[in-house]
Design a protein that fits this description.
It is built from 7 helices and 14 strands. By secondary structure, it is α+β, with helices and mostly antiparallel strands.
């Protein structure tokens, strides 16, 4: 059975509904995972998204900041949320579909501007959350679980995931300490980086372009901050995928674009 999963940091659901409509019309995902919805759970636009075919919705929101949501055209068997670092910042929700596939949707902290945990608490929080996530995955007893981890992980791990490896080595999202933390997280459950299976290095891949760039397409100073990882039990089920680059140029865009994978389950 084919299953299409799309992940997107919407950077405020209230002002991206038309963007989401266009994404859904273009990609037709079965599951849509959102980050940075920036709205309380009870104020989430449930009806508007149900009208797009997503009758099943699991939302973990908060006012003005963060927040994640998983929307599906198929029923959920179970749902849940998890708080990290002792802070209820609405950064992680998860569902299990009726076919047994578990989907985890994450929004990892951006980390501020200074890559020093001693003087930047936002950067320290980012590293602490990644460490907690790693410990959580390492503690899982079952290693054959069908699981997908998606979301805005706010780190571009490979040299080919940024427009200039040399110039961004000391810029938050591509520093060596962040990259190593993300790779430890990936190794904790032996996840496969789906998009890099489909498009291996040295090809460049980006999913984010700053609003500060006057002409994002011309300068093309992107980073791949959004990821889809597959657990070992389903890595051979990868049937395709893409990054919808053109969505960055649509009307009132997010600074992130949709990342999609197709699974044959």
């Amino acid at each position: 059975m084919p299953l299409r999963i799309t992940t997107l940091n919407v950077n405020s659901i209230r002002i991206r509904l038309e963007l989401i409509r266009q994404v859904v019309a273009t990609l037709d995902p079965d599951v849509l995972c959102l980050q940075e919805i920036k709205i309380e759970t009870e104020r989430f636009p449930t009806a508007e998204l149900a009208a797009l075919g997503f009758q099943h919705q699991h939302v973990y929101g908060q006012k003005a900041y963060h927040g994640v949501a998983i929307l599906a055209k198929r029923p959920f068997h179970s749902v849940g949320t998890r708080a990290w670092c002792g802070s209820d910042h609405a950064r992680h929700c998860f569902v299990t579909l009726e076919n047994g596939l578990e989907i985890h949707d994450f929004y990892v902290p951006a980390g501020g501007d200074i890559p020093d945990p001693e003087i930047n608490p936002k950067f320290r929080h980012k590293l602490e959350m990644l460490a907690e996530m790693t410990h959580w995955l390492e503690g899982m007893e079952a290693r054959d679980h069908p699981m997908v981890l998606v979301g805005d992980l706010n780190i571009a791990p490979l040299e080919e995931d940024v427009w200039s490896h040399k110039q961004l080595l000391n810029v938050v999202s591509h520093t060596p300490v962040e990259v190593e933390a993300l790779l430890r997280l990936q190794r904790a459950y032996d996840f496969t980086d789906a998009l890099r299976v489909l498009t291996p290095p040295p090809a460049k891949l980006y999913s984010w372009w700053s609003y500060r760039n006057r002409d994002w397409a011309l300068s093309d100073r992107g980073r791949r901050l959004d990821h889809v990882w597959l657990a070992p039990a389903i890595k051979d089920r990868l049937a395709g995928g893409s990054i919808l680059r053109e969505a960055r140029g649509w009307l009132q865009p997010s600074d992130h674009v949709p990342v999609t994978v197709d699974l044959d389950l």
